[in-house]
Amino acid sequence: MGLEKPSDAEPLPGFIYAMLARLAHAPQPDQTAQVRLQAADGAWALVRAAPLTGPQVDGGYAITVQTAPAADLTGVLMPAWNLTCRERDVAALIIEGRSSDDIAASLFLSPHTVRDHIKAIFGKVGVHNRRHLTAALTGQPREAAA
Asked: pLDDT class for 10, splitting at 50, 70, 90?
């Protein structure tokens, strides 16, 4: 597969060609590339590209698309919402389903401080309850949190 512009007969999204170009110039020939994409409905996908190897293979790449794992997205989405380190700690425990009192005990904070962190997190993410927060920070589609 060449890395030139896609033809009309086999058009691929531009990001695929960017990934393949990155792989073609990688210092290690067995390196992989990946990108996370969000669909219009809020669902996330993980796209990976890797060079094909083996005696029967003459170049080429394998491209896989899968639902992005929630744990993978949380590490990307929390910084994207500009959550502080402590807000991330609180949010991670909310995602686990922990109560405010449990979060306070786990993080050695007062319940009042936990409530303040939760209010700040809700404001940054633009949600009004824990279910919607969990959906937003784990990359679930908006409809899944309804």
From this structure: low
